[in-house]
Every structure is written in C-alpha cells, then in structure tokens.
Amino acid sequence: MILREFSGGSENEALEIALDTLKLKQDQLEIEYESKFGIFPFGKKQVVAKVSFEDELAFGNRSLMLVKDLLEKMNIEAKIYLIEENDEKIVIEIESPDSALIIGKKGKNLEALQVIVNVIMNKDSKKWTKVMIDIGDYRKRRESTLKKLALQTANQVRKSQQSILLEPMNPFERRIIHMELKNETRIETVSEGDGTIKRIKVLYKEN
Question: Which residues of the chain have pLDDT under 50?
C-alpha cells in the first residue's frame, strides 16, 4: 500500500485535491481524515486526508510525481497533468511559463526528461510501460514539421537520384520519418550511427 497526505479547508476539499492529484477514483482509495490547527488557537483549521491505495494503481501517479520532483529540483515552475493511462503507455502534459527551457533546442531537454523518467519508472518492471511527456503540444507540432521535411526530402531525392542525410534525431523523430516514407515510391530510409541519436539517410531506389 502507498500512503499520501492531502490538506484542505474541509474533508471535501482535501478529498477533491487527492483525487485530482492521484487521478484515481474514490472507491480505489482508503481514506482517513484528521483535523489540524495552526500554531495559534485562532489559527485556521486544516483537514488532512490520509489516503492509501494499492501499488499497482500508482504507476501513472508515480510518473507524474517524478516529473514534478525533477522540475522542482531544477527550480522550474510547472503544473503537471496525467492525460492518459493504460497498460501500454502513460501520457503526461506539462504546463509552464518556462516551456522553452523544458523543451530545449529541437526538443533535446524534453526528450532527455522523458528518457530519465522512463528508465526510473521501468527499471524494476516486468513489462515496459512507455511514459510520454509533452508540453504545449510540442510533439504534435514537431511531428507535423518532420512529416513535411520527410516528404520534401523524398521529392528532392527522386529528382536528383542522390541520397540525402538528415540531421541527428532521437528514436521518436526517426520513427516519424520512417513511417511517413515507407510507402513512397523509389524511396528507402535507413538509420545510421550508434547510440540513441542517429541520422536517417533517404535513398533513391531503382524500380
């Protein structure tokens, strides 16, 4: 069992905060309430909800809290939301005034954050659950840009019949290029390089 505490001005408020943070339903939780007062007798009363839930329900929540903790350690102000959770993936959305810093040049910081979270969350798991992290729909916008790049490059390769080597990309970006061009006539794509960051070569293929 995992135990967390949430405070509010009333039982309903504390429970609402707990449910919103954990992204769980009330019937999945065991809850105990405790009233606390400030240092002074006339201090405002606070209600603490002591919430317990099973470990297997906590993957998405633990992923969310890990992202929150990492950003706090970097002194980055942000709100973190659990958008989607199923057996195969977790989708986390970040909202922050420091979005440019979190994304980094060509998404390098965002990708590094996602890799760190995936490694930590899955290190003791029997089944890999992918944690996807986005901010301001960056990944959707990046995907659109890469698809346009892929098609433009394919057209250039067909006209010149010369291969073109694209910029270094992470696995997420390379997959978009490969998938976009897999059915293009006279076009073949191969990844070149070692490690996580590789380059895609777009080749002209004779009939």
Answer: none
